[in-house]
């Protein structure tokens, strides 16, 4: 970890909440909002989120699976996201979400008319703006957590999405959500 966290302190809570409380609290609210207020389908949401996680290399983000009403994407979904160009597991919207996430992160100047024509064929303007803001959140905060080494400080192997009120059944998920861990 790049940041010197005092002994016994939670790295995420310390960095996001104590080191930069004015910025960290606002960033946390934005990051959590993309989960709580999304109108996107789970598959396209997760395709974009996971593609950004793969690009950023954020360990926590790669381990996370968004859950809605007890449903998560199927096993192997992350592999399909990595192979978004050739996989037969995706419909057009899901494939475009993965492509958009990748191009947003790696080639935003290359988003040309042909790409936008395909996007507007499958997504409304509101959905494009929502997906853009979500991708921006994941790109910025997943990268921040990875660069500072915070992504290895709070790995989850299972737990509810940030939009789901955590329960004591999974104390790791409760702790992550309570401290405002976001990606």
TrEMBL record:
Residues 22-102 form the Carboxymuconolactone decarboxylase-like domain. Gene3D superfamilies: AhpD-like. InterPro entries: AhpD-like, CMD-like. It comes from the Bacteria. Coiled coil: none annotated. This is Carboxymuconolactone decarboxylase family protein.
């Amino acid at each position: 970890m790049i940041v010197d966290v005092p002994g016994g302190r939670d790295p995420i809570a310390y960095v996001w909440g104590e080191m930069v409380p004015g910025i960290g609290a606002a960033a946390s609210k934005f990051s959590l909002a993309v989960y709580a207020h999304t109108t996107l389908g789970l598959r396209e949401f997760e395709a974009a989120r996971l593609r950004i996680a793969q690009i950023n290399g954020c360990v926590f983000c790669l381990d996370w699976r968004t859950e809605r009403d007890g449903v998560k994407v199927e096993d192997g979904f992350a592999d399909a996201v990595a192979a978004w160009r050739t996989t037969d597991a995706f419909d057009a919207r899901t494939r475009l979400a993965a492509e958009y996430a990748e191009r947003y992160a790696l080639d935003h100047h290359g988003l040309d008319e042909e790409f936008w024509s395909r996007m507007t064929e499958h997504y409304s303007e509101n959905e494009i703006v929502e997906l853009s803001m979500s991708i921006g959140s994941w790109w910025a905060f997943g990268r921040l957590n990875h660069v500072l080494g915070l992504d290895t400080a709070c790995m989850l192997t299972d737990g509810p999405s940030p939009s789901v009120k955590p329960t004591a059944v999974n104390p790791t998920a409760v702790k992550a959500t309570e401290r405002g861990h976001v990606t």
